[in-house]
Design goal:
The chain is an alpha/beta fold. It is 44% helix and 11% strand. The chain is globular.
Length: 455
């Protein structure tokens, strides 16, 4: 075996030993929608017969459905332009620009738009694509500044320190970018967008502070007609760019994504956004699928699904919380923001008691996520969840991430809760049996022998 192969194999073996090696999920047959608690198909549009029929009808009449011909800069793509125009009207944005994925969009924006001498402040839980974009940018690494998750106080401290140290930020010659997600995919937490925007506008009155919001997991669920949390909070005019993906709640293929921003930034990305310039653009079939999904947003049918989804989130937590009160918290617990329903989260907006809204993303924190996920998958009617460990989430925060869907029923939710409770009870029973066996050893052979066996 070559040196390269040795090194690659050793790295994978290390991950295998620590139980953090990633593998593609395998199933002998398609996962039933009622058993799917792991995908991002929040509105269940991927299995919607309504959307399927509309998509098939649109394909049958479209002049082009296969391929796209190349990069947007090589060939005219009227269908893409028409969709961008529609997105500008729908979201009330100055300009929209399509990308093949949310990952591509974030890398393009953060690698190109911040200029030398600028700073980027980012939430510690920001998506990996933003990290890749920042790493490829011309911003000095010392000016990439992390702040504690959803902590406006930490953001303020960082900005004040920068303003104290740098004349160019105080007088507006340099810019500060703040990168957040409206809904975080691993935690189900909402960014306190009102407070973040107010902080940036207050501390940077020269208008050289810019908020960028990734709405990937909020699109289609929140805001008027699913326009996202920025629109729900009326902040469209206070953020520089919004990123909306269509491959999650809207069932788009390939994670089709749009950045909503200004005409100048759109033009700059067309010239300097490498993930856009040097790739074949979305196929016409992709565009048609997104158009059909937006028909459902605009006619209100998707909103009905979103309301049902958020009702299921409330129901799931109402069922689960009482059981977790008697479970050892070191075995299984909810994150702090989901342990009660009184909306007294420190990130709450005092002007809006309904914030944060329910979330379809519910992490079950446990040091044994693989065991819990395997138990749920082994039930007579298997339920599919995902064990999440470091490096996807910080060390010590392993979890099973539950993603709820509008296609679920209350009976599906009850089966999931029952499966979780069964696992907890079985684990506790095993622990008690092990403890009983050790006590028997101690009583029968003496404390000394028992202590030696424990060493």
């Amino acid at each position: 075996m070559s040196s390269l192969n040795d090194k690659l194999a050793a790295a994978l073996a290390s991950r295998e030993k620590r139980r953090i090696r990633r593998r593609l999920p395998v199933s002998a047959s398609p996962v039933l929608s009622s058993a799917d608690f792991t995908s991002n198909d929040y509105l269940s549009l991927a299995t919607s017969s309504t959307l399927r029929t509309a998509f098939q009808n649109a394909l049958s009449t479209a002049p082009q459905i296969l391929g796209s011909g190349g990069s947007r800069l090589l060939v005219p793509t009227p269908a893409h332009v028409a969709l961008e125009n529609r997105l500008e009207r729908f979201f009330g944005a100055e300009k929209a620009l399509l990308f093949n994925s949310g990952f591509d969009a974030n890398v393009a924006f953060f690698s190109a738009i911040p200029q030398p001498g600028d700073v980027i402040l980012y939430d510690e839980h920001i998506h990996a694509s933003v990290h890749d974009g920042m790493g490829a940018s011309r911003v000095d690494p010392s000016s990439l500044i992390k702040f504690s998750h959803n902590s406006v106080a930490a953001l303020k401290r960082s900005l004040r320190k920068l303003l104290h140290e740098r004349d160019d930020l105080r007088d507006g010659r340099a810019s500060a970018f703040v990168a957040v997600e409206s809904l975080y995919s691993m935690d189900g937490t909402f960014a306190p967008l009102h407070e973040i925007v107010h902080c940036v506008e207050e501390l940077l009155p020269k208008k050289n502070g810019y908020v960028i919001v990734d709405e990937a997991h909020a699109t289609g669920i929140y805001g008027p007609q699913g326009r996202g949390m920025v629109a729900a909070l009326g902040l469209e005019g206070h953020v520089l760019a919004r990123l909306h993906t269509f491959g999650k709640a809207l069932a788009g293929s390939g994670g089709a994504t749009a950045i909503l921003t200004t005409e100048l930034i759109r033009d700059y990305l067309l010239n300097y956004g490498r993930p856009l310039i040097y790739t074949t653009t979305l196929t016409y079939a992709n565009i048609i699928g997104v158009e059909c999904a937006f028909d459902m947003l605009e006619n209100g049918s998707a909103e009905v699904l979103a309301l049902h989804l958020l009702d299921l989130s409330r129901y799931f937590l109402e069922l689960l919380r009482p059981h977790l009160q008697s479970a050892p918290p070191e075995l299984l617990c909810l994150p702090s923001h989901l342990r009660t329903d009184d909306h007294k989260d420190s990130t709450n907006s005092p002007s809006d008691p309904s914030f944060p809204p329910p979330t379809p993303i519910i992490p079950l924190l446990t040091p044994h996520p693989h065991s819990l996920a395997a138990h749920l998958a082994s039930l007579p009617q298997p339920l599919f969840t995902k064990a999440i460990t470091w490096p996807t989430v910080p060390v010590g925060t392993s979890r099973v991430r539950v993603c709820l869907h509008a296609g679920h029923t209350r009976d599906d939710i009850k089966k999931l809760v029952d499966g979780i409770v069964d696992w907890v009870q079985a684990w506790v029973a095993r622990e008690k049996e092990v403890e009983r066996q050790w006590l028997n050893v101690a009583e029968g052979e003496g404390v000394g022998v028992w202590m030696e066996s424990k060493l």
